[in-house]
Structure formats: structure tokens, C-alpha cells
Write a structure and sequence with these properties.
Elements: H1 23-26, E1 27-31, E2 37-41, E3 50-54, E4 57-60, H2 61-68, E5 76-78, E6 83-86, E7 98-99, E8 105-110, E9 113-118, E10 129-130, H3 161-185
This protein binds zinc ion.
């Protein structure tokens, strides 16, 4: 499972205002219908606003590879050619943000720091989500319960949604072909 968050867009909306926002002012941590804890908008946000910094431990590539080996780690982001950032630390409230197939936020990189930015207007009380960016490997191990009308059923990056639909279609077709044969042999 490649769950490495590669190359978040480095374009920044410089009209988005000062970066002094904090989780306590803008976001609330509450139980989420998607999974575990989530972060929710405390007020209305316009598109392009920095909601919270995605903070974490700067680690070298070797440590990063080690931590991502053989297990789910959706908290590690690509920073630059030398360093990655592991957000799985207590002092990173942004780690509670859940994945959605129709996310209302995205993570961008600005001068070596990562920010969660609204990608559309967000209503007060809405859960903040971004795309975890998983590829298709072992997708069945990561069911998605984001509740979006366009939910594809698994935690898979938006760029792979069409491939996922094809993979699921092939699997269903296989099952349909196999079913009569199984009956006959039983
Ligand atoms: Zn979903």
C-alpha cells in the first residue's frame, strides 16, 4: 500500500490572509461519523483560507521509508528532496482530519510548511476533509465511509477513482461468471 502523500501542490493563495489561525479558533475536534475523531468548522469559511497548519516531525528519507514499511501510515507527507514530515504527533491536531471522496480542503506546501486550505466555501459545523491520496494497492483494506454522494467506497486518491470503478466492475463481472459454475460443481 503506497500511502505516501506525494507533492502536495506548492501553489498558495496569498490572498488567503495571515497564517495565524489555530485549531482552537477555527476548528473543533468532535466525534466524526466518518471515523474516530474529526475536525469541524467552528464558523463559515470561504474558499482558499488557511485553516490549520499540518505540523509534525521532520524526518530524513531513510526514517520515512522505515516508518512507511509494511503498514498504514497516512501521516507522512513529502516536504522536499531531503525531508519528509510525519504528522503523527500529539501536537498536530490536523492529524484528526479525515479522508473524503469529495473533500472540502487540501494540503499545500508553502516554504517547507504544510497547510490545510479550504478548496470551497465551508459551512459552520461541517467536517473538514482532504484526500489522503492512497493508490489502488490493497484498496479493499481501506473502506471509506465519508458519506459523500460521490463516495467510491474506498479510501483512494481522486486521480484513481476511474481506475477503481473499472477494478470493481471487473471483480463483479468475474463473480457473475463464476456463480453458475460453482452451482454446477456443488
Ligand atoms: Zn468516500
Amino acid at each position: 500500500m503506497e500511502n505516501f502523500q506525494e507533492n502536495p501542490s506548492c501553489e498558495v493563495d496569498h490572498d488567503a490572509g495571515p497564517a495565524r489561525v489555530s485549531a482552537t479558533e477555527l476548528l473543533e475536534r468532535k466525534a466524526s461519523a466518518i471515523h474516530g475523531w474529526g475536525l469541524f468548522a467552528a464558523l463559515e469559511f470561504r474558499s482558499g483560507l488557511r485553516l490549520i497548519e499540518y505540523r509534525g516531525e521532520r524526518i530524513d528519507k531513510e526514517t520515512s521509508t522505515e516508518r512507511r514499511r509494511g503498514g498504514l501510515n497516512h501521516s507522512i507527507f513529502f516536504l522536499d528532496d531531503e525531508c519528509d514530515l510525519d504528522g503523527n504527533v500529539e501536537w498536530n491536531p490536523a492529524r484528526f482530519i479525515n479522508h473524503s471522496c469529495a473533500p472540502n480542503a487540501e494540503v499545500i506546501c508553502d516554504e517547507g510548511r504544510l497547510w490545510v486550505i479550504s478548496k470551497r466555501p465551508i459551512g459552520a459545523g461541517e467536517e473538514i476533509t482532504f484526500d489522503y491520496g492512497y493508490d489502488l494497492e490493497d484498496y479493499e483494506d481501506f473502506p471509506c465511509q465519508c458519506g459523500a454522494a460521490s463516495c467510491v467506497g474506498y479510501i483512494v486518491a481522486q486521480e484513481f477513482h476511474a481506475d477503481l470503478a473499472r477494478a470493481i466492475g471487473r471483480k463483479l463481472a468475474c463473480k457473475r461468471r463464476r456463480a453458475p459454475a460453482e452451482k454446477m460443481s456443488g
